């Protein structure tokens, strides 16, 4: 996924007489779309990026790929009808391929619990931000991260007890099926969730890779949520469905019939039982409340 574009009216090209400026804009309470298009306009945006940014901001390999389809800095991008049709088909196929790689992950190095049939995966396959295996790039692993997320830093792949954060991602339920927004599911977290700071479960839309837009403005619950219920044995249950199970409203995240979803379990200040996997979350289980 290509990163954010800088509006030229806010960030004009840097010159000696026009030093770069930065303006911080609060996005709280505002809706904005960060999903790249899956039609020809994708290439138009890519061309805009190539034209506006310094040549050195994109490595030679990716510049070469762009050049192969007619996107070159300082040159017009104007493919003929035949090439435009090819590119439109390519972006649709590429999007579908990336979606399949992400939502039905087969990359073994991305599994958090490879010795089991667990659906839990990590963003960085093998905890490696460079996605290198046997002196080559693992392209499926790279796609798994860059299609679903927007930033990469080595620090995000380093897990240290009590410091930073770590994440578990579930795209599928315990039966290895995509989650259905019309059904009700439950996630069980055993007692003594191993965190120094807090944990949270956040709900995402598989179509946008952004938080699912429901009547809940912030589709997340966790240890800092007001009224969140703990079971008598110290464990927790989180529910997902179009309606809250009776008496579980504070432990519930709303889903939308007709839309699939996935979750991220965020561990802030993860402790050793999470790191060495002696503590592990349950799978996403379908429950019949109707």
SSE class: alpha+beta
Low-pLDDT parts are 1-14
- Number of H/I helices: 5
Regarding CATH, which class of the largest domain?
A: Mainly Beta
**What can be said about the biggest beta sheet?**
6 strands, antiparallel
What general form does the structure show?
globular
Distance separating the two termini: 40 Å
> Taking all residues together, what is the mean pLDDT?
88
What is the number of independent domains?
2
Radius of gyration: 22 Å
3D structure, described in words:
The protein has 290 residues and is α+β, with helices and mostly antiparallel strands. It folds into 2 domains: 1-103, Orthogonal Bundle (VPA0735-like fold); 159-286, Domain of unknown function DUF1214, C-terminal domain (Jelly Rolls). It is 20% helix and 19% strand. It contains 5 helices and 12 strands. It has helices at 41-52, 60-68, 81-103, 139-148, 272-275; strands at residues 120-121, 132-133, 136-137, 165-170, 179-180, 185-189, 195-205, 220-222, 236-241, 252-254, 260-270, 284-286. Strands 1, 4, 5, 7, 8 and 11 form a 6-stranded antiparallel beta sheet that branches. Strands 10-9-6-12 form a 4-stranded mixed beta sheet, with no helix packed on it. The protein is globular and about 65 Å long. It starts with 40 loop residues before the first helix and ends with a strand. The model is unreliable at 1-14 (pLDDT under 50).
